[in-house]
Amino acid sequence: MKVKAFIPAVILLCFGVLLGLGTSRLLQITDEGKELRNYISWEDLRVVEDVETKRSSSIKVNNNNWLISNANANAKATNASRVIVVDKKGRGDSVTVQGAVDMVPDSNSQRVKIFILPGIYREKVIVPRTKPYISFIGNESYAAETVISWSDKASDRDSKGGELGTYRCASVTIESDFFCATAITFENTVTAEPGELGKQAAALRITGDKAMFYRVRVLGSQDTLNDATGSHYFYQCYIQGNVDFIFGNAKSLYQDCDIRSIAKRYGAIAAHHRSIENDDTGFSFVNCDISGSGKVFLGRAWGNFSRTVYSNCFIDDIIIPVGWNDWGDPDRQSKVLFGEYNCKGRGAERRGRVPWSKSFTQDEVKPFLGREFIYGDQWLRL
């Protein structure tokens, strides 16, 4: 569907959802010719905000008393954006998340906010690289009830009979740049135990650059989050799994996140895949809460030069005392950068750690502690 005109006010969008209008409720707010912003801000994670006037509205849009509050009727917003509403009950622009993504034109040049109402959306979603500047936005009070869920695993077959493999099994794949999401749950319902073949089952795969995830939930078991390539910022997120459940070769900062093991016996949190020494990649966990069940490694050396650092984290008594694993290749012990700084909790005890892991000094850990690790000054305005 090609839409040339959009209702120029958030409040009309809300009433359109409520009344089930037959015309499109795809909203465009002009920005008076301002150039595209090649960064992510808090505004990109909001659908409704007060600007210039004090008029507001609170609208019930479903039986669960899900509210849109402070919807401003003034068309002069501070940021250019389109809003596409996803409602599985049929009162939005699309009943599926993929349908909303498909409404975004290729080579999109402005922020498009896909506003997802609570519900379990059982579908596989791909945001292609040709569609940058997309936001997935839920309501912060209903993140656990706003779920994109699928159940592919690596050993499943595609339509041509080939195995999906770990790379293609993700419930949600983000290939585009400048993507951001908040108050959404990404889920893969496959359950796996260590050693089970073909049970890798990602909930989320990210290959786009400059992505931010704020208060999202990523649920799975083996290989939950495929943090594949690019620079990414995970802030106040919940990530759960049992084996290598954060893996890939991205350069990502996990700040103030809840990292939850659901291992029954043993497993591993991170498996970074830096295979070339001059690759500027790595995982940095800062001020995270590491807890859950089983006994797990802090990280495994999936690549020859894997890089994973935990700083100022609380680590519960779930860590295998040696802490780190060389993936069965002793040559990697002298090449990887695995270490900890100022972590607390029973799992942070370093007396049993492998000798080739590092206990950082304050000066040594400084490059890993803030958004500068992911060059956030170039693409984050928070």
TrEMBL record:
Keywords: Aspartyl esterase, Cell wall, Hydrolase, Secreted, Signal. It holds the Pfam family Pectinesterase. Its EC number is 3.1.1.11. One of its GO terms (biological process) is cell wall modification. PANTHER family: ACYL-COA THIOESTER HYDROLASE YBHC-RELATED, PECTINESTERASE QRT1. Pathway: Glycan metabolism; pectin degradation; 2-dehydro-3-deoxy-D-gluconate from pectin: step 1/5. Belongs to the pectinesterase family. This is pectinesterase. The lineage of its organism: Eukaryota, Viridiplantae, Streptophyta, Embryophyta, Tracheophyta. GO terms for molecular function: pectinesterase activity. It is an enzyme of class 3 (hydrolase). It is found in: Secreted, Cell wall. Residues 84-377 form the Pectinesterase catalytic domain. Its main location: secreted. It comes from the Eukaryota. The keyword tRNA processing does not apply. InterPro entries: Pectin_lyas_fold, Pectin_lyase_fold/virulence, Pectinesterase_cat.
